[in-house]
Amino acid sequence: MTLSRMSRIRIGSAPDSWGVWFPDDPRQVPWQRFLDEVSQSGYEWIELGPYGYLPTDPELLSEETGRRGLKVSAGTVFTGLHHGPAVWDETWAHVSRVAELTRATGAEHLVVIPSFWRDDKTGKVLEDRELTAGQWRQLASGTERLGREIRERYGLRIVVHPHADTHIDTEENVTRFLDATDPDLVALCLDTGHYAYCGGDNVKLIETYGARIGYLHLKQVDPEILAEVRAEEIPFGPAVARGVMCEPPAGEPALEPVLDAAQQLGVELFAIVEQDMYPCPPDQPLPIARRTRAYLRSCGA
């Protein structure tokens, strides 16, 4: 596979690949170290990660990323829009501040992660695993409203991230969500690891719903650990701590066919590496990041 075949794919990484899940946590590396090491690994693009981990002052953030040769591809927000209009004000308060910072960095995407139906640490069930028909309608209309407001006010495009232990997870639920939402307002952030975690075929989704793919997260799952996670009904957080998300190319799905399918869409796409590793030793991420970047280059990306 030649480099030219991946000319439309822009590779980056994220705080997630350095074990960062929270704005502030003593088990996480300082933000300065993350920026230093992601640059040393050969990446040019990063995501903001949890709001407040990286500097929220746009000038300081621009200075710190710029002097390391880094640019921002997206911000990330968390939503529970299936709960309907009652949660809109609280949602917008969170989303708007992230969107403002994202726009200030020059990025054009906002990754939207649905709320979890069970606690990702304790496994406590927070709500029913399946949405009612009414909740699906609220989810679709609320997400369309979010897409419209974000585009009109901030000039950003939302990309919704199917995620383990949320209501947008399996092939059935992802396709139902896509079929229920306006393509002009709502695109997908296809996370290869999460979709495989939930039993989906990444290449099939890209080939079937290519026009809806607006962004990629690259990760792999360890099939043996995933089988244990499913058998024991382990929630996502403890599954990550067990190592369910593994270093490429050791897991599934194979990333080269995914990247090739994405390249064939004929549009420019970010493909951001996100190897969930919370928590992890501080010296673990950099060698993995370097090897992963080298592996992706071998795929032509």
TrEMBL record:
One of its GO terms (molecular function) is isomerase activity. The keyword Cell membrane does not apply. Gene3D superfamilies: Divalent-metal-dependent TIM barrel enzymes (3.20.20.150). Coiled coil: none annotated. Pfam families: AP_endonuc_2 (PF01261). Keywords: Isomerase. Residues 35-297 form the Xylose isomerase-like TIM barrel domain. SUPFAM superfamilies: Xylose isomerase-like. Signal peptide: none annotated. This is Sugar phosphate isomerase/epimerase family protein. It comes from Streptomyces monticola.
